[in-house]
Each structure stands twice: as C-alpha cells, then as structure tokens.
Amino acid sequence: MSGHIPVLLEEVMAALTPRDNAIYVDGTFGGGGYSEALLTRANCRVFAIDRDPAAIERGTALASRFPARLTLIHGRFSEMDHLLDVRGVSAADGVAFDIGVSSFQLDDDRRGFSFSSDAPLDMRMDQSAGQTAATICNTAPESALADMLREYGEEPRAKRIARAIVAARPIITTRQLAEAIERAAPRHGQKIHPATRSFQALRIAVNDELGELERGLECAERLLKPGGRLAVVSFHSLEDRIVKRFLSQRLGREQKTSRHMPRAAAAPALFRPSGKSPVFPSADEIHRNPRARSARLRAAERTSVRTPGQAQIGASR
Ligand SMILES: C[S@@+](CC[C@H](N)C(=O)[O-])C[C@H]1O[C@@H](n2cnc3c(N)ncnc32)[C@H](O)[C@@H]1O
User: What range defines the domain where residue 91 resides?
Assistant: First the structure.
C-alpha cells in the first residue's frame, strides 16, 4: 500500500502560519502530513481528528514523536467543538480541512472506494458505522439512486445508470457495480471511466460528505479565536461551492436578494480574506502528485465578531 502525499502543503502552512504555543486542529488527519508539518515548524499543540480508525491507528507513530503535543481523536470533524471541549479546549488558532479520501483509503483493496480492483462495495470512511455503498445500491429506490447520481456525481446519464443498478441487484463488489455502469453507459471515447462519477456520488452519499463539510465549517467558525486561520482544501466543485458560499457569506459582503429589491445591509464580517483565494497546485506539484490536480485551497482569518450563541470567543482553558 502506498503512502499519502500531502496536497498543497506549503500553501496550507502559509495560510495557517504555525506559531509557538498555538493550538491547531487538523480536521482530516489522514496520513498526518499537515499535522507533522505544523508540529515540526512550531512548538505548538495539534488536535488531529479522523473518522477512520485506521488513520488514527497509523498516527500513533507520529504521536510518539511529539509526546504531549499531538492528540489523536477518532471522530467526525462536524463534532469538532465537542471533541475538543471534552479535552478542555474551547478555542483554536487554526483549523485545517483536507476534504475527501486519503491515498491509504483509495489504494486499500478492502475498502471498496475504487473500481480499479475488485473489493466489497463498502466505501465507509468509518467501517464501524453507517450504511455501505452496497446497501444503498441494493435497497434505495431507483428514483433516489438517480437523484443521488445526478446531484453528487453530476452524472448526465443518471437515470439510465440507476435503472442498470436496480436490474443488476444484488451488487456485492466494486467490479459488479463498475460493469453494470459500463454496460448502461459505455465509454464512447471518453477519457474518464464511465463509473467515475457514480463512484464519487456513492462515496459522498455513504459518508454524508457535503453535510459533514457544512457542519464542519460552522464548528471551525465557533472554535477559531479572533485572528485564527481557516484553511480548506477541496477536490471537486460540489465541495468548493460549499466552502466558497460559506466564506462569501461570512466575509460580510452585501447580499443582493433580487434585482427588484434594495441590497440587504452587509452582515458583520465573521472572517476576513487572508492571501489569494483560491490557490491551486503548481504544475510541479501536479507532476509529482497527479492526485493533487483538482485541488484548491481557500483560506480566511476569523474576526472578533461572535456567532449567535457563541459564549466567549478567545477563551482557552
Ligand atoms: C485527504 S485525507 C487527508 C490527508 C492529510 N491532510 C495528510 O496530509 O495526510 C482526508 C482524511 O479525512 C478523513 N475524513 C474525511 N471526512 C471526515 C470527517 N467528516 N471527519 C473526520 N475525518 C474525515 C478521511 O478519513 C481521510 O483520512
């Protein structure tokens, strides 16, 4: 199994600007690339979260290199404020998200994320919880499957593929699913495999990835101290749209509701821009790590404006 090469690492570090005695949250620990860089560049503390128990298990080697500075937490980043609160931390100087799956997960034949090998059709980042992709394929109504493929996979042949999935039931393995999709939607000279979009859609649905991202961003907003930095790396337009909308709402820009209505008053800014955004990987990075090709980073700095219900910003116990 290969390792995971951190994506946009220098750019994420430039956005977070690691400082001594600061507290950082790595919301997507994965192979630990961001956590390791933070811990190496400053005498800081890192709370690293991953919903995949295998990532946390792998991280114990890194934790032993940074005793008392790296805390590994099995959980979802949408519960980040609670996960930190029970560890006595109520505010952070930086939060990083590197959304999606790691190379460890993609390349592990037992996880079912990829159609390039045959494996049980699972796709759960946390195999101890939730429905597998096979359960969804075998039980969801055809119309719900089509909606999912259209919405999360931006798949133009969603209806035809959903019909093929229902006809091929029971589907147990990645290969069975990829073959059913290929029969319904042949390649016709396209560069990407016809199952690519459907696999993306299923993975997003199985892990509720877009809901997690929305809730995770709100958690980060509550947790960040004034001047604290948020850095989010995303890999496709659905995720990037959520991050972009979240930040543009918080950057205190005027909201125009309708061309017949006056512009609504600007809300007080919860974030201010920090650096150029979005940032894309360089040609050199894409050459070294082709999996970085669709990545983009958006970063911002938290202002001192409180969110509704936020008791005391800047407090750290
Ligand atoms: C792209 S990898 C992160 C790689 C990491 N930045 C590195 O440099 O090694 C994404 C990781 O986030 C985890 N993940 C995805 N969604 C999550 C969520 N909602 N909560 C916690 N972890 C999540 C995945 O299990 C995966 O290990």
Answer: 9-104+209-302
Q: Do 95 and 238 sit in the same domain of this protein?
A: yes
Residues 6+ apart with CB under 8 A from 263: 254, 255, 256, 257
Is 28's C-beta closer than 6 angstroms to any atom of ligand 1? yes
What local confidence, expressed as pLDDT, does residue 262 receive? 62
Of 43, 62, 45, the closest CA to residue 4 belongs to 62
Q: Is 76 in the pocket of ligand 1 (CB under 6 A)?
A: yes
234 lines ligand 1 (CB under 6 A): no
Residue where a domain terminates, one of 207, 240, 256 = 207
Closest CA to 208 of 89, 123, 137: 123
Mean pLDDT of 130-159: 97
Task: Give 96's strand partners.
Answer: 26, 231
Mark whether 42 and 81 lie in a shared domain: yes
| Residue where a domain stops, chosen among 164, 179, 207 | 207
For residue 198, what are the β-bridge partners?
A: none
| Dist. CA 93–CA 292, nearest whole Å | 26
> Considering its fold, how many domains does the chain have in total?
2
Answer yes or no: pTM beyond 0.90: yes
